[in-house]
Amino acid sequence: MSKWIFTVCIIMISLATFNAQNMLHRINAQTYTGQGVDAMDQLLQYPEQSDDFDEWMYVSFEKAEQTFSFGQVKDSTWYYGWDVNTSSWYLKEKDVYFYNDSQQQNQVIRYKWDALVSHWKPANKTDTYYDPFGNVTDRNRFTWNEDIADWVFFSRSVYTYNVHNSIIFQEEYLWDRPNNLWVPRSKLINEYDEHQNKILQILSLWDPGLNQFVFENKTMTEYYPQLGEQWITDSEWSSTMNLWIPKIRQIQSFETEGKIETLITAFWNQTLQDWVFYNKTEYDYDAFDHLNLLTEYQWNTTSQAWDFPALTKIELTYDELDRITRYISYNKDFGENEWTGGYQYDYFYDEIGNVIEYISYRWRENQQQWEGINRLVHYYGSEEVNVDHVKDHENIVAFYPNPASDYLYKAGIERLLITIKDITGQMVFTGYFDQALDVRDLPAGCYIIYGIFEGRTQVGKFLKI
Predict the structure, then answer these.
(1) pTM, whole model, 2 decimals?
(2) What CATH number does domain 2-49+97-340+379-394 carry, 3.40.50.150, 2.40.128.720, 3.40.190.150, 2.60.120.380?
(3) Above 50 in pLDDT, residue 55?
(4) Residues 6+ apart with CB under 8 A from 287
């Protein structure tokens, strides 16, 4: 699983650096290792907040989907989990976004859904502050304290920039409630070359015993444009030896057009005092220069060659507007000598290009079908902006079973006016959804349901098998 997560992180890097102007993917591993202001944020988890693989996908998708929005501010994101017993989605959490006069997102409040009382409960909050150049300068995080029915400090991030608006310092603090003060937690220092490419990043952690920062990790990036390569080397600080110990090196090779071709990962062997290959990812593109296939190989220390056939691969698909709609990971079953499903991620857009939904699945080999993991639904221009922070939504429309083969049912309301479209945007049904909906004549595939309810659009999705 860890090897696959590494590969998924690489593909999410490509999504996070999506070039919206020419619709080409540009992959830069520094996006993940601290290029943006949210790098250290990934290391900070709220109490009682999930930190499993799906949380990583939340963070990665939030970074990726920002580049796909076209003119409308996002009001809220609703998070759903999959109930294997009822084969339906259930509400978990939602984020509500608020903006300042400059339309900069300055507050995010996360609520958790309490199904027992059908009520949203506040969980945590993030307040963000900007300088005149639009750079984030402060990010304060709070957790909800039910005993006092108020927000209490949890953590704080402070950012400092150079004259080129590149981050040179990122400081993290935790709130010491008994002493009512901020306590240092970590510090990032970045250095850049004359082209504002990041060449060095040092992470230090606060040692309360020594009452000072202590080195933890260092990332050095070397650029070789004449070779079409970029080297990223991670090192760990050894306090006993008082020096940096190399750990991981990534070597990226690019085509003349700037598209990445290969990513080779090597580990430092302390005994050999040399780098040892671990895995390689090859990137392939279609006729439109879309990144559409990633294939991963592992280094065979016996044969001193890359293993073939490949161990894992990821396939990406796009719609007619060059927007990514799906990627699927596969693992090699060497016993059966065939590819088996791993994970699948689907993206859906509205008529003007905003991301409205993101769904993740895992392949269940024993059932020979995809099973839901998480679902994110975005709303734009809804009534959730600038309203009371705790708003009940007792009538939530749920569709089941999912996947469906003959009939689709709903829960939440008795009658719903709906439109169903396939993943290409072609309308396949419009009318009222009463007790059950006959989907036997629909071809197998994914479908989006748009339902009008209480003056707003409820969006759902189901898989026809």
Answers:
(1) 0.70
(2) 2.40.128.720
(3) no
(4) none
